[in-house]
C-alpha cells in the first residue's frame, strides 16, 4: 500500500461522514496530512543512507512550493522500492526492521521510488526519488567453493609451474590478498608469487613414493580496509603417481635408516644344490627372485631375463615369474663350486627402465646327516678373578669345547660349521663363543655364585642346517676348585686347601698300613703257638669230629686274639671301617684252613 500524505483546508468538507473514521485510521498508519503548496511546485528528490541503518533514519526532505488554496493535496510513495520508505511530515525516512535490514549487497547501491501528488484524487505530478545506499564494510571475504575442493596433481608436475589457483570474493567489493600459512603441514611445497592473483606455484618436487597427500592453508585478507577481515581455506592436494621409478628386486635393503630416504639396494640371492640335483626349481634366499615397479600405484608388468651365468642352458628363467630352473646336473662340484647368475628385470612398456640383481648357486656334496650335539646341556665353570677374559672350563678343570658333530665327515668335524649364542640378551653379552666352540667369559663383569644358562646354535654354512644345545655356567668363588666330575661335585674336605687335604689323606694311609702290619704279626704269633697241637691230632688219627671241635675252639681263640689286638690300636686306628675288619678276618680264616689241610 502506498504511503500518502494529505494537505489542504477543505480536507474534511470533501469526505462523507461514513468515510471519516476510515480515513482517520489510514492517516494514522500510512500518511500524514500537511499543508503545502500546489503539486506542481515540487522536484525530484535525491538522498543517501548507510546500509544497516536503523528504522526511521532520515533520508530526504520534501519541498513543495506554490500558492496554497482551499484544496487538499495527497502525497503518496510508489515505485519498486517504495516499501523501504515512509513519510513523516515533510521528510522521507527509512522503513527497515530487525528482520529486514538495509543490505547494499542484496538490494544494490540505489533505491528507486516515486513521490506522486494528488489533488482532489487526481494525479497532478510525480517526482522521482533516488536514494543511494552507502556501503559499509560488513562482509568477510568468501572463497569460491569450486576453487577449494580437493585437488589431484601428478608427481611429475614441474617446479615453478602453477599447481592450482584459488579465488575469494568480498561482497563489499574490497581488494583481496592471498597468503600461505607457513605453519600448515606442507606449506614448504608451494609459494604465491602474486598475492592478488590467487595462483599457487609448486616450489618443491612431488614424490608419490614419499608422500601421497599434502595439506596447505591459504588466507584471503581484505587489503584496502581498516578491519582487514579475512577467511581461511584448507586445500587438500592428492599426489598422483607418475612413471618415474625404476624396478627393484625384493626384499629391498635400505641404504640408510632415514625413513624419508626410500633408496635401497637389490638383494644378493643364494641357493645350495647338490651334484645329483637336476630338473628342479631353485628356491633362493632371502626370498624368491621377484621384482616390482618402483611406482607403487602404477605397477607396470615386468619381464625377466638372464644376462649371464646360464652355463649354456643349465639354468633357465621364466620371463614372467622370475623362477629359475636347474635343467641338468653338475658334473664336478670341485671344478665349479659356485655359479654366478645376473638377472635383469625390465618394464614391458619401457625396457630402458630396468634393474639387475645377482644370484649365487653353491654346489655341495650330498648331505645325509644333520649336525647334532652329544649333550643337551654342557656344564661350565668360571673362577672369580680380575682378568678381563677367561676360558670357560668344565669338570676336571679342562677347557669347555661345545662342538657339534656332523656324520657327513669322517672325523665328525664340519669345517663350515659356525657357532653363535642366541638369543641375544644380558647373559650372552657376558660371554663370547669362538668358531671352534670355545666359550670366553668376561670375568670382570661376573659376580661370584652367579649362574647363567646360554643357548648355543651351530649352523652348517653350506646347508643351512642348525643344531642347538645349552650351557650351564657357574661362577665359583676365588680359590674354589673346579669339580673333577659331575658325580663328585660334593668334595670330601669341602673348600679346604688341596695340599692340606692331601697331607691328611697320607697320614690316614700310613696309619692303616701300620695297623695291618700289627695284625699280620699277631696272627703269625698265634699260629706259632697252636700249630704243634694241631699236627699231633692229625698224627694220632683222631676222629674228624674231634678235629672240627678243635677248629671251632681255634676260631674262638682267633676272635679273642682279634679283640685283644683292637685294644692295642690307637685312637686313629679305631677309624677303620667294619668292611676292613671283615676283610682281615676273611684272610685270617683262609690261612688257618690251609694249615689244617
Automatic annotation (TrEMBL):
Residues 49-143, 145-249, 265-373, 374-485 form the Cadherin domain. Keywords: Calcium, Membrane, Repeat, Transmembrane, Transmembrane helix. Its main location: membrane. Gene3D superfamilies: Cadherins (2.60.40.60). It is found in: Membrane. GO terms for biological process: cell migration; homophilic cell adhesion via plasma membrane adhesion molecules. Coiled coil: none annotated. The chain crosses the membrane at residues 500-520. GO terms for cellular component: catenin complex. This is Cadherin-related family member 5 isoform X4. It comes from Clupea harengus.
